[in-house]
């Protein structure tokens, strides 16, 4: 056999192998499409059967999930936004109080309903912690409690006597402990019992870190109404825990961006969760700027003992030739407080751009489903409100740090009005969904069997 013949046979063999590989790949894709079609058909039939069922109130209670606490998160966030609006008019305080009191009522309603669910169906309690989707929303209960504490500090402290201020200081430390336990606990449960894939990743994975993210705003509000070393301890702890929450969220951000670069946008039903990516930056801005603004006053009240030498006298080459030894620590502490305030303002302005970027991306991702109006309602629709309340309060905080910058304040006011409208719209859709069996119904919410996030190997 000549060399040319051998080369010809070899090339023919390679072509044959390539054709076989193409045919095999085509058959594999066809089988995958067939399996996807069969799964979609089963899902549609299950939904149709569920719609034809008649369930009692007791049976519907089985599907009252942790996601209902997103409603109270959003309502408490609205009270927070209204409190921070710089342009005050007659009735705006009453409007904020209305959202605040409504939030307490809704929180008690949610606690009663989910307790009834666990009482009637005890197995659902453990199941909610092990469910790959519902477990992500367990911290919503803690976050809702935190928003109530923030609202009490805003609307109550200073108007009901000193006892309420002291009570809120204790509540602050209790909430810090609950936030750390909830955040670490849910992440550990996720990593120990569940398998997730990057293709189904959404910013909802950040949700277990959210309890930590509102500690900074809570500390900023409460420190403004307390004095002495108590306020300084609150600010230092607020900075620390806020940093933990933001850094954990930032690391999960990278996974979300990788998912967007490799898997396109999430499914339309999951896209409301994209707004959760706005929250970490927004809450961190509000916390940093608010706490930083209080530092100079608090340090002055504590005698300037802040980031200065503990008991040693200042070095003669630095301060003693200008001021007396008695005032050296005060000057050093006040200088450190002013530097901290300026750094907090710059960091807030920097993160404000990040929050705006995620907000624009999240809005753009909803353009197609909104034009076709094919989004099924879910309690995650309150993600249209709560994370954006963080952006709004952050906008007002940035405006204050820039000497009450008027254009930025106007942007915040526009966002505030839009949020009131969106909250009313989502609340109306929620009522309609309950009546129309879109929620509180089998296979409709985050307790559905597939769970929304599962290992592909388990679903095939």
Automatic annotation (TrEMBL):
Domain of life of the source: Eukaryota
Transmembrane residue ranges: 66-85, 91-114, 135-152, 172-192, 204-224, 230-253, 274-295, 349-367, 379-402, 408-435
Ranges of biased composition (kind: Basic and acidic residues): 16-43
InterPro entries: Mae1, SLAC1/Mae1/Ssu1/TehA, Voltage-dep_anion_channel_sf
A GO cellular component annotation in the UniProt record: membrane
Subcellular location: Membrane
Region ranges (Disordered): 1-43
Membrane topology according to the record: Multi-pass membrane protein
Keyword Transmembrane helix: yes
Protein's name according to its UniProt entry: C4-dicarboxylate transporter/malic acid transport protein
